[in-house]
Amino acid sequence: MSTATLSVNAWGLSEKSKIRKKQLEKVHDTIANQPNDSDGRRKDASKAFETMEYTFLMEKSQKAAIAVNVKIQDLLDLFLPDAESNTSAGKIEIKLNDYIAELEEFAKTAFDGANRFLRLREAVVNVKEQLEKLNVDIQSFAGEICGLKEGLVNVHKLTASTGNADDDDEQADNKMVHALNYARYFKSNGWLRSREEILDPNPSLA
User: pTM value?
Assistant: First the structure.
């Protein structure tokens, strides 16, 4: 066996080793990026919690609306008549201070609830944006799959012979065109192939 043959074989083995390593890395990355059961359970639990929190806040907001109405009625029915009566200014001031304190406490609770509503809204918007991005990624991936399918069909399509089917030269030309198309396609996609695979991509057709 000549030195040239040895170097070609060594080059081919080296390229195959690199290809195999890249393929294994791609498979590993794909598996690592897949969601597992724990991810799904965690997302379901988070969604259930947010739903419960939203329901809780809605109930609190309804109670708050009732409380506001009660406060307004208190102001109209109790404090204003006192102000127009002979009740001393000191007693009226005490009642108003108590009323103001209750309003301040109510306002504080209402603001806390409003902030939680805003946080939930931001979470919903964030999920919506993620879903839109996922949809774009899926459409892009589907386009790549279609392109890959068309490319593979073209690569494995032999050029039809216009002469005698037994003509060795014609078959050799067809095989070379097939090999060049194969190499050109995979090179354009950044995939390396060994010299032996480029020259004979489909040994069964030999």
Answer: 0.28
